[in-house]
Amino acid sequence: MDKIQESVCEFEALPREKSIGGGWIVKYKGFWCPEMLLQPTLSFQKHFISKDSDILLATLPKAGTTWLKALVFSIVHRNQYSIDQSPLLTSNPHALVPFDHQLKHGKSETLYQENNTPSSPGVFATHLPYDALPNSIFKSKCKIVYLCRNPLDQFISQWHFVVQNVPQGKKAMPLNEALELVFEGINIFGPFWEQIMGYWNASLECPNKVLFLKYEDLRKDDVFYVKKIAEFLGFPFGKEEEENGLIEEITKLCSFRSLSNMEVNKHNKMHEKYPVKNSSYFRKGEVGDWLNYLTPEMAGRAARIIQEKFGDSGLTFEFV
Fold it and tell me: Where is the signal peptide (predicted)?
């Protein structure tokens, strides 16, 4: 049997489950990967060569990924683009900062560019667990910024996103069934507790390499945390920049209200090969929206699971 046949047989033997969006997810080395992303993920793990200057943005899906991409793009490119000339005015953040599966082999470059707009040099994003990242990332001085959102709001946001973007011929699961899968740890790039704890522990062990942020904290004091992100990445704001209000200008540009009201994010699709409406990346961006969807019984069970998985870790969540 040749290597290709062996690979096919190995993939066929992987556990498979229906995802909340109606497609298939497969369990690969401890986490659930969308079947359509398995090969690109393996390629990324095997071929990606990280540079010391690389910046990796890590999140669970719908945990503030779009916001984090916009902020970091603006931070690292502030000397290249003034606020009124920012590519964010005409491009969705996901078109400017690629995901891991959109990278060319061995390079932190996107497979495509929107309107020839340069992608962030060395800035890319992932939903992969920490221990599933390519070895070259650990061997390099690549910086990792992880944004964590409380699991209940993250789930509700993800479920709505899936419902809005169900492929033709597929059907999204009802919310109660989808939540049951999440409770069992069966969700893309999950179990969520293992992914969050992986980056949390890494941030404690390697604070100069991994910055762990909470979505809820960022919402409370975005200026403080944008400054913290910039310092961590090696792009600190100068005294003159701070006095001129540049940090505030960046946070305003990248705010939910600002991005969601831009024409490019109201009607366009990011790319013909990825037919997801830009508008679906912007729903509410609030803390505590889960209260509008989960019954007391659902919330109680979630609280017990979260306590069990995170109880003695030192990591806490803000739910309202």
Answer: none
